Amino acid sequence: MNPTALGTELETMLQPVSRTGVTADDREWLPVLEGRHVSLRGLRRSDAASLHGLLTTPEVARFMSTPPTTIEAFERFIARVNRQRTGKYICYAVTLKGSDTAVGLFQIRETEPNFQAAEWGFALGSAFWGTGVFTESANLILQFAFMTLRVHRLEARAAVRNGRGGRALQKVGAVQEGVLRKSFLSNGEYLDQVLYAIVHDDWRASRDSLATALVLH
Fold it and tell me: Would you list the domain boundaries of the chain?
């Protein structure tokens, strides 16, 4: 799976934020999200080396905002995330069950007060594309966004050329709403991006339909 990331460089995304019903810093309040095959947790300094190795390869970096270019830069990014005590930005590390090595990131950024609207993005090491890691992780993030943060509308952007990333978003319920022309700078070229969105009512209806189908089956 080709990853999608938020349209701002990781090193510059950290802004002070407000969260509904959350008061402690990320390391204290951010719940671990447990799936069948993956576990999502807060970032640790020890994640810097694995994230640098996985997220700076050409195939991963092609359609994402420029990641920190060194292990030390990743360490600074992680330190800034963990120093946040209030904020508009949340970042999860993706790990596999039975391993504590970070293999990717998911980010959520508030775009309207109290997370009424937010933007999400992700980056995953290419060795884990097509394995189900994205789908399971994304569904955990969606549940967290809509049920814990109480997001009403969750947006994502993917380069038009990033067909794999767009299909991955649609697979978890994102709806294409429009094209943002020349809105993403990649390797000196401005690319068109597709705007995708998921709203709470649609996510809830899809989740309830799936639960009903499982019961009937």
Answer: 10-216
CATH architecture for residues 10-216: 3-Layer(aba) Sandwich (3.40)
Strand 153-159 to strand 117-124: parallel, antiparallel, or no bridges (unpaired)? Answer: parallel
DSSP-derived 3-state class of residue 113: helix
Spatial CB neighbours of 183, under 8 Å, sequence gap ≥ 6: 7, 157, 190, 191, 192, 193
Rounded to an integer, what distance in angstroms lies between the CA atom of residue 113 and that of residue 200? 16
The answer to whether 6 touches 119, Cβ cutoff 8 Å, is yes
The closest alpha carbon to 124, from 160, 99, 156, 96, belongs to 96
Instruction: State pLDDT tens for residues 52-91.
Output: 999 999 999 888 777 788 999 999 999 988 776 456 889 9
CA 60 to chain centre: 14
pTM of the model: 0.82
